[in-house]
Each structure stands twice: as C-alpha cells, then as structure tokens.
C-alpha cells in the first residue's frame, strides 16, 4: 500500500514530528489556506510528519519548490501538515499521506495526483495542468530575436540531425525559463555569425514526448546536441558570459583565462572524499564501511551538504575501514548506477557494509550526527 492510513495509529504517532524545515516550500495553515490558494495555481502536499512516505517525498518536494517558487512564477509548491491543520484536510477528504493536489486559480478542492512521486512525473503533471493555460496576467516568454531557432516536434530532428546545437528545453510558466529568455537571445545574437553551432529552444508543454525522449526532468534544461545525439547537459551559471564560454569550449575553442581559473578551482585536489562512478562503484565499496552521497551539482541541498561531507572525509582519513564517497548522478556514466541504487531524490545518502546496502541516512546533516551514524555502524550495529 502506498499510503500511510489513519487507522489505529494517530494517537500514538501524532506526537512524533519528523518534518524537516523547508526553505522553499510554502507552509499553509487554516489561517491563510482559503485566502491564498485561489490567488495562484498551487500544487499542495497534504502530509503527516510521522509518515515514512511523506518523509521520503519531502526532499523531492523541496527540490520542486526550489525550481518553481519564483516571485513571478505561475505556480506555487506548498504543503499542509494534516496533524495540525485537521479542518483543511478533513474538508478535502484527505485520508492517506501524502496526498498531492493541484489547485488552479480560483479553486479550493483541487485535482488529485495519482502518479509516481518522482521529479519527472510531478513536473509532467504540472505541465498537464498548466499547459493549456495562458492567463492574461502571466509573464510571457519574449519573442525570439537574432538567431534563436524555435523548434517543434515536426522540425526538431530534421534540424539537429547534423551539426552542433545548444538547445533550451523550457516551459512557458517556469520562472527560471522566463529569466533566462533574454540572456538566451543575447547568446544567439552574439553567435549570429558562428556557423558551427545553432542556438535553439523547444516548448516542452507542447512537445512533451520529444522532451521525454531527451530525459528532460526540469526546466530549463540546456542540452548540447551533436548529430542528433545528446552529448552534454549544461550545469553552470546562466550568465551570458558563462554560456558563451561553454559554447566556445564545446566547439573546441581555446579557453579564456577566466575559464582556466574556473577549471582549476573545480579540480579540488585536496578532497578526501572518494569519487566513484558506474565503472568502479562495486569494487570501491567492496570492503569495510562505505558512506555514499548520491548528488546532483544543481541541487541546493547538495550544495549545502558538500562542505560538511568534505569535513566528514577528513574525520575518517586515517580509518582504512571507512570510505566517505560521493557519486554525481547527473553524469551519463552514473545514471544507471543511481537507478539501480534506487536514488529517488538528492542528496540520497546510503551506508554500505562489505558491498551490501545496510541503511539510508535520513537524520540531521550536521557533521556530528553524520560521524555518529558511521561510528554506530562501524561498531557492528546494523540498522535495516
């Protein structure tokens, strides 16, 4: 069963508060729910803090909120604690947790989401709810100018089959996409006479099947395509200067002094964290304790955990029985590995003993708590 039901457990479990602080998700209460929900499109998670399914969804929900909760965006990602806001949940027949509902402008009952609770499925559901909407007061993507090629399902493959192309996969309602639009046009204008590459865009709310084929899981996604195949996904800053430097790099141009400085800083030669990939993961965790962070470079929670993870590596540098490890799930070589390890949100932190997964870490991400968790398992106390 995919839900945590109320039967027989509320009295015992309602005292347990496992909800973690969300920096981007909006928390509604009975004081403001009925007033705020009709003002904008909302996607709301009705949850119970003690529910394991709710706890597992929370990092993905926060990730979705980090992507979409922009001041000028067309949708808000929110949540309601049904243990505290009983009336809100009762009025909407919430009987299991988590329950996810989409509320269009002016509505107070909402449409229930019944799909898989991963980022691509949640994003596609939002597309389905908003794809046909074009409210007069919603921000519009600027008209393309100076060389940005607007592709469709009919023209896409004909255009990208040959040569090199930098393509923006976007949704018109996405706040990040709207902010990038003028910079994308500026990039196209600055490369107007560069025949080796074209700057393109495609609307994923209209051509969802094509975007799914290219594994677009968030907006905007900036992909480098050569001869019809995805070669790379751009993960850097979205300034005009950085985007152009990336294009030059992919075209084989000599890097500027600024690019060299950035590349050197990314090498992190002093890191004591072991970097594993799909090629060497099994061998790397074969012996002893391996505490592994599966992450995405663009993930805010991952960025905040990164310096603590480095400190954790230092703590165990002299312990040959413990490895502190990280795996970048956005790299093509690691995608199958992350899928096999059931990584469904970032960061996901798993502990392995002699090659076998023992436990998923879901506690506080302070250095002290992480060290304590590793020591507990290294002493032979397994927690399944």
TrEMBL record:
Keywords: Redox-active center, Repeat, Signal
Signal sequence segment: 1-18
Thioredoxin domain segment(s): 1-127, 128-252, 262-379
Gene Ontology biological process terms, A to Z: protein folding
Domain of life: Eukaryota
SUPFAM superfamilies named among the record's database cross-references: Thioredoxin-like
GO molecular function: protein disulfide isomerase activity
GO CC term, one of those recorded: endoplasmic reticulum
InterPro entries: PDI, PDI_thioredoxin-like_dom, Thioredoxin-like_sf, Thioredoxin_CS, Thioredoxin_domain
Annotated Pfam families: Thioredoxin
Membership in a protein family: Belongs to the protein disulfide isomerase family.
Name of the molecule in the record: Thioredoxin
């Amino acid at each position: 069963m995919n839900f945590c039901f109320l039967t027989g457990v509320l009295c015992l479990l309602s005292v347990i508060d496992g909800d973690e602080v969300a920096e981007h998700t909006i928390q509604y209460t009975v004081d403001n729910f009925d007033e705020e929900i009709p003002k904008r499109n909302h996607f709301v998670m009705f949850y119970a803090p003690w529910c394991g399914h709710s706890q597992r969804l929370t990092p993905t929900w926060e990730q979705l909120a980090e992507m979409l909760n922009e001041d000028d965006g067309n949708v808000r990602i929110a949540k309601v604690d049904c243990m505290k806001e009983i009336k809100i949940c009762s009025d909407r027949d919430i009987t299991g947790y988590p329950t996810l509902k989409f509320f269009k402008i002016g509505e107070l009952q909402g449409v229930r989401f019944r799909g898989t609770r991963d980022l691509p499925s949640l994003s596609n559901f939002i597309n389905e709810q908003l794809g046909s909407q074009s409210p007069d007061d919603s921000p519009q993507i600027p008209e393309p100018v100076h060389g940005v090629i607007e592709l469709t399902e009919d023209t896409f493959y004909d255009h990208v089959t040959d040569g090199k192309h930098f393509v923006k996969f976007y949704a018109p309602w996405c706040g990040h996409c709207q902010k990038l639009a003028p910079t994308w046009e500026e990039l196209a204008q600055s490369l107007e006479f560069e025949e080796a590459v074209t700057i393109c865009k495609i609307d994923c709310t209209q051509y969802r099947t094509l975007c799914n084929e290219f594994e677009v899981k968030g907006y905007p996604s900036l992909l480098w395509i050569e001869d019809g195949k995805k070669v790379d996904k751009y993960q850097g800053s979205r300034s005009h200067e950085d985007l152009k430097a990336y294009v030059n790099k992919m075209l084989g141009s000599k890097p500027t002094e600024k690019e060299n400085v950035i590349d050197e800083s990314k090498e992190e030669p002093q890191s004591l964290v072991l970097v594993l990939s799909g090629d060497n993961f099994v061998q790397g965790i074969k012996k002893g304790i391996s505490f592994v962070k599966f992450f995405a470079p663009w993930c805010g929670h991952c960025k905040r955990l990164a310096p603590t993870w480095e400190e954790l590596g230092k703590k165990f540098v002299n312990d040959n029985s413990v490895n502190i490890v990280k795996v970048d799930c956005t790299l093509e070589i690691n995608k199958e590995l992350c899928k096999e390890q059931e990584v469904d949100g970032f960061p996901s932190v798993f502990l392995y003993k002699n090659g076998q997964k023992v436990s998923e870490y879901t506690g506080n991400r302070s250095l002290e708590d992480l060290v304590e968790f590793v020591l507990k398992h290294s002493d032979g106390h397994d927690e399944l």
